[in-house]
Design goal:
The structure is a homopentamer. Chain A has eight helices and seven strands; from the N terminus they run E-E-E-H-H-E-E-E-E-H-H-H-H-H-H. The first copy, chain A, is of the alpha+beta class. A seven-stranded mixed β-sheet of chain A has the order 2-1-3-7-6-5-4. The longest helix of chain A has about 70 residues.
């Protein structure tokens, strides 16, 4: 359940803007890495103290400060003070129960996203909150733990390949968002395969495990939906926001992210549709099988109950039962039984029960 | 049912603007408390008479008048007269069947909210209506009973911690709304836990109590939704209203409340989705179990009915039944029965019924 | 069915604007009452002829002409001619199959509403169409039969209590609408109680009468919805229409009616949600009970069928059945039967069937 | 299926604007009738050749050209050439698979509608496509076959009654649309009656024919919906279009048609709601009846299986069965059986199965 | 599953704008054909090298470059360089997981569509992605494999029939889109026939194959919907886009495509409605048949179980059973059995079970 609702109750009664970490602690110690670059320049370092980030604040080069681990609230608070960030924003960064959202604070834009990965062990989708702060010449990103989704971007900056070194902080923020959205496709493929497997089972041999699998997939879809739907709004607003922080040339890239988001949502909806269709099929299959079971019972009972009755009659001990004395009584009784049985079978054949 | 619809019929035929208390009387006697503060000043008192509130009306300091208990309509009417409030507004304050709403009367803004708490004894969510009147330098709040949700705010004002003493009446109104919305998260966590428990039962051992629990949770969701959905509109309008009563700096805080409201609604919708998925699972489980029961019956009946028939045949009293005379007749009959039984079992094995 | 669709086919082929009465005739003879008032003046009379209304047309005082009974089309036509009303409007007044609607004809505003009452005998909600014409200084109201919903307003005008004598024709029209909307709450309470009763039955003892009751409640909800939903639009348009006929001071009252309408709609939707939840519970209960019935059958059959088979074996008449000769054969057979029975019971206990 | 989708595949690969008749041929030979009128003038004739229509093109009087039968594509093409109509429009006229739509071509407005009638023999709703071309002084209407829906309008023009002779071509077009929409009410009444009948059956004696009837009604609703829903948009756009072709005075009549369309749609939705409620009831009834059947079986089996077992015991042929020798053995056995039977009945009474 | 989600994971980590082919390789080698025409001029050739396309870039005539096969990414890249296309666009062309979309890049418009065809062998709808680039005087189209949908257009250009040679590149792009949308109708007819067949089966003899067929049709509908829904938006935006690339005269043709798209969507929705209605019928039929089976069982069991019990009684071996000694004992017992049987049958007749 923690997946669907975070223990926000810890915060009740505190003044707004009090940063309280809500969520799981995923790594031991927070880690701050700084990448500073311009078209012809590149510098990468790990900060021991938060204060080391400060000199980059007003440098004309693009600076990317990445914080892994948000449970050390004092670090977040110091960053907030150094970069002059609104307290409500800091509160949101450390509360992992946010929905994806985007807020324009004028000097900087604040973006919250969900990074998703499929946990093969627990067979479920897990989410990690990523917050981005985009200012004119720096991007600060906050992650719950060290992830590898951003590594290719680091590589690209380092190697100077592609457009990234030539563009500003907005393009960097876009690249981070793009990397996150792209990673959703992997989740969707995984879930798509599971849906396919479950559908196969449904056709060949539906059991109550199939039902459980369907239920789990539905839950994952609810979770995915909750994590991705608001993103559409976020990117769409980013595209339309009239902020000096976002260059025109970057807009076309944001449109591309928007497009990907729509495709993700589209696929989630398609999967939901398919899953609910599969549940119908499951229910129908159960009913069908019940029918089959009942038919077997009915056929057997309907044939043998009357026959047993006849046998019962001639098992009575009345003194005067003339049939019992007949020489052909026994074969005649057997014959009558066979005839009744055959008639029953013909009837069932006719009714298409056999 | 009182929870879903209040006895508004009492009011039928009365002229509009007649304040009639509709709802339960929750405390004995209404209680008026006044808190008056400025950045460097703080005063708290309890009013014995309504008239004691009047001097605060035009004081430049921020005044918070809180009335616990709205069943004493004459108090509400006096307040209305003293502060020159519209009669329709007074009518709304004492009628606890309102939906959350916001109305801009020019000189003051009227806000109706629902305060929710989870009643552990009755295992259901209970609502209390809170009305706020926000004017340029005072806030009047009306509650049905004394609650502890506003206590942390009182503490903050008293202690002078945080921003609150430096800000105006709009920030106070925001703080009250924020406190109420924050308290929703506690309800959601409680319900989330119950949903999780019920889901657990569903998997291990679904009974008709599980069904009842599902039904109750669904009802609570309907109730929650009814109480919280309109709030979204309320806060959104507050944010966009162009009123001199709300300062620009407060807007960002209202946006935060809006955000929280959206998260609450989002979670309610997620819970609803999950509950309806759980009902499907419940129904499927029942069908599955019925199938299992039917299979047992069918297997037993299908094996023994033919055998009993054979036994019946040799229980007949015909004079001439040669088999009865055979020395190996009895063992042969038993053997035939065993063979038939084994064949049946093999058939069931093949059909995957066993 | 007449409740859901009126015999509009009578009108097919007639030129537009031909007034044809469609609906039930509810009273014998139409009755015209006139109330004329100003702040310090009050006059009430019953018109024998339609022409008696004419002098009030241009009087500066506010005039309320109420016509009970719309089946006498000639009266409606005369009114139309006297007050210069559009023929399409007259057609709508006498056709009781209208949806609530509002049309601005410039000099006057035409409003159609549904007055609802709960028929205790037929246990269903019945509707009556009310049409209002609001001009600058008069209101004409058309009802299908004499109703008592407007009586409190008459009383208020007569007694001069409240605001009504001081306000214009728009306030009178508002008062009529308000009276109608207020009366919806009584219906909702009635239906709420019935839903509660039905829910109680559902928990204690669901029968096919409960199903029928659910179905009837659902139908009533469909009917209510059809009657009330469009009202939202009507009031909302009235509020926003820029007509000289509606004063600014009246707008706040219209907002109040709008608010009530929303609450009515909200409650209807809540009831619908609850009813559909109840149907799910009903279906699940039936399945649960079927399960219980099947279990009893299965337990009894599964225990006794094998035992009867054993009895059948020793009822066979083979010459050589050594067990029959044993002295302890009979007690041994009984013992075996008891053991089998007990084993079966243990098995059922284990499977949690008992 | 032809009802739901027309064989549009005939057209694939042809250049746009190629008129190909798609649909059934409903009459033998197309028929062109011309009515030309002004306030004081009336002329009616049947055209043998298409060219006879031409002189009316620029006459100041209002001309109504009606073509029954659209399968003779060459006629449509000639009309198109004479009146200078866009080829895409001609293509639409002869393709009966259109949805209702409205297109403004500047000099003329093109409207497609569906004329519906209830086929008593096939017990289904059938549709016929009607296309209207409204120009400043003429209206051309295209029907698939000769229908009688327009006859009252012809009569009204001929007799000069009502407004029609005084108004322009736009009023004529409105009259035709109004006649079509009015005819929908007849269909709705017919279907309403059938729904009522089916509902009656549902309560008294639901069979699989009832299910079939429900299914057919649902299909008809889907068909009706498909035919009428787009009309709402059509009329609404017509009302708002700023075309010189439509006079202000006609707008109020269009609003009336809009109103009727809304009522038709409203009723269709209500019927759909009712039908889906009825299906739920049907399913519940089946379950209820299955329950009843199972109870009978269970009661009979549960009472007699144990009794038969006891009888079986005393039918065993063991040498030493002391009870068999007792004088009161037989009555005692009977008594035991009666006691067991009565206990079972009491149990079923207690469980409310009887 | 590949049908619903493409392996987009290949792309994860790559910089945006990297063209990677995602999808099946459908033909061996890409093929480039060029058609260049003006009103009085026509030239058709097949390009061996991509560079051969370049001279047509700035020719005043209309040029249509068609590329069959998009798996040869280097060709797409060269085209991109020659015609100065945005890298994100190239990425989209080779990734067949796009939804239909339209993007205006100023100098050119980029359109993605889905070409559908019904695979008779696999009995499912298959999709192929078609991308169009519309510039002022050329159109570039990308297909996954050689298709015959565009052949009639080639023919029309060659023969000079119709409007196409007189119009610009926008009309050519429209023609391609129109050809694709028209081809949807064939799919719909095919699916319509299958729905009809399945519905027939449903009425006459529903089996679990019918269920499977329903499920498959539902899946196809989900797939179709996913492929066609976004097209509505695409065409609608194209119609409204204020681009110099699209002439006014072409707009009316786009409106026609829009209209067709709406009809396709409409039909898909109708089919979905019908399929979900059919599933309900299927479930009800199963329940009905189960009922029938249970009735047979119950009737047989209820009649014979009591009779067998009576036979069992007189099969007991008590010494003193006076009835056994009576001369008419046996016939009397038989008579009692017949009476009981007949009473049972009458009871079943009364209960309408027979």
């Amino acid at each position: 359940m923690l997946k669907f609702i975070k223990k926000s109750s810890k915060k009740v009664g505190l003044p707004p803007g009090t940063p309280i970490h809500i969520g799981e602690r995923k790594i031991e110690k927070a880690r701050i890495t700084i990448i500073d670059y311009a078209e012809a320049q590149f510098q990468e370092c790990e900060a021991k103290k938060v204060e080391e980030c400060f000199p980059f604040k007003d440098k004309p080069t693009v600076t990317w400060i990445n914080i892994d681990g948000i449970h050390q609230v004092e670090i977040i608070e110091k960053i907030g003070k150094l970069f002059d960030l609104h307290p409500l924003l800091l509160e949101d960064i450390v509360n992992t129960g946010q929905r994806p959202k985007m807020e324009d604070f004028g000097d900087y834009i604040f973006i919250v996203l969900k990074m998703l990965h499929y946990d093969e062990k627990d067979k479920e989708v897990k989410a990690e909150q990523v917050s981005l702060i985009l200012a004119s010449n720096f991007v600060i990103s906050f992650q719950e733990s060290e992830g590898d989704v951003f590594n290719p971007i680091r590589e690209r900056i380092k190697s100077g390949k592609g457009r990234i070194r030539k563009m500003g902080a907005d393009y960097l923020a876009y690249s981070l968002m793009d990397a996150i959205v792209d990673s959703y496709f992997i989740i969707l493929e995984k879930l798509g395969e599971e849906i396919e497997d479950t559908e196969g089972e449904l056709v060949t041999n539906p059991t109550s495990e199939t039902l459980q699998a369907l239920h789990n997939l539905k839950r994952e879809m609810i979770f995915l939906r909750k994590s991705v739907w608001p993103l559409r709004e976020v990117v769409s607003v980013l595209e339309r926001v009239e902020s000096a922080l976002i260059n025109k040339t970057t807009l076309i890239y944001l449109r591309d992210v928007y497009d990907h988001t729509i495709r993700v949502i589209d696929t989630i909806e398609t999967f939901r549709d398919m899953l609910s269709g599969m549940l119908d099929i499951y229910l129908s299959s159960i009913s069908n099988r019940m029918n089959a079971v009942m038919k077997v019972l009915t056929i057997i009972a309907t044939i043998f109950i009357p026959l047993t009755f006849i046998a019962g009659i001639y098992g009575m001990n009345f003194k005067f039962m003339p049939e019992l004395e007949w020489h052909w009584g026994y074969p005649a009784a057997l014959l009558v039984m066979v005839i009744i049985g055959v008639l029953m079978l013909i009837y069932f054949k006719r009714s298409e029960w056999l």
